[in-house]
Design a protein that fits this description.
It contains twelve helices and eight strands. By secondary structure, it is of the alpha/beta class. Strands 1-2-3-4-5-6-7-8 form an eight-stranded parallel barrel, surrounded by five helices. The two termini are 13 Å apart. The mean pLDDT is 97. Bound molecules: 2-phosphoglycolic acid. 2-phosphoglycolic acid binds next to β8.
């Protein structure tokens, strides 16, 4: 059985003080209320990585992750942060290829394959995002587009290494729109992704890889989404910014 993962993606939100309060509130609620064994990750803005880690202290239920990192290991890349830097701060998860990075920062599958390599080389876990925009869904191209994203981003990895990846399927039309994919739509796409991995690496490998759903997950829909056999938890944006709501999302895992 795959362990459920609930990752909050704070994106570019909250001041440090607000972030500290949020993290500390959720940490307390998780200790008091959450009875499942889901892994919880807060993917916070880079300057908050260590402060939030500090706030969480010895709460072993929650880890801190990054939202992006460079494909380069070091050097003259002003404004970037590298995988070795994250590792040196004991930050072990990083989101790669979020649709906002693809859309606003021109990240493509080729670049994401490089980022995946550098992240894995340094012992971090990439949360590799894929997902189709609305017009592709409407013309029924979503399976092809998403399997191509997974193939071009990850299929150069060998059998042992791909098992270290977490995938997040996030249909772009559901991100921040309040329009969630139905549990059936999510399950169908997760199955397509898992079958595609099985086609290349075999079913046993495919069965080990966590595939998270993202796109307007909230306290009201999390339980149903996370109950789907191929949905192993969620990557949660808006709802991760409210302590009560996010704790209730975690409880759905
Ligand atoms: P949302 O964002 O939950 O606000 O839709 C999800 C994401 O972009 O990771």
């Amino acid at each position: 059985m795959r362990q459920k993962i609930v990752a909050g993606n704070w994106k570019m939100n909250k001041t440090l003080e607000e972030g500290n309060i949020l993290a500390s509130e959720i940490s307390g609620m998780v200790n008091d209320e959450v009875r499942n064994d889901a892994k919880i990750i807060f993917c916070v803005p880079s300057p908050y990585l260590l402060p939030i880690k500090n706030v969480l202290g010895n709460n072993s239920r929650i880890v801190v992750g990054a939202q992006n990192c460079s494909e380069h290991e070091s050097g003259a890349y002003t404004g970037e942060i590298s995988a070795p830097m994250l590792k040196s701060m004991n930050i072990l998860y990083v989101i790669l290829g979020h649709s906002e990075r693809r859309q606003y920062f021109g990240e493509d599958n080729k670049l994401l394959a490089k980022k995946t390599d550098v992240v894995l080389k340094h012992g971090l876990t990439p949360i590799f995002c894929c997902g189709e925009p609305l017009e592709i869904r409407e013309t029924n191209g979503h399976e092809k587009l998403v399997t191509t994203q997974v193939e071009e981003g990850l299929f150069h990895l060998d059998e042992a290494t791909i098992q270290k990846v977490v995938i997040a399927y996030e249909p772009v039309w559901a991100i921040g729109t309040g329009k969630t994919a139905s549990a059936q739509q999510a399950q169908d796409m997760h199955k397509v992704i898992r079958n595609h991995i099985a086609g290349k690496y075999g079913q046993a490998v495919a069965d080990k890889i966590p595939i998270l759903y993202g796109g307007s997950v909230n306290a009201g829909n999390a339980k149903e989404l996370f109950a789907c056999p191929d949905v192993d938890g969620g990557l949660v944006g808006g709802a991760s910014l409210k302590s009560r709501e996010f704790t209730d999302v975690i409880k759905g895992a």
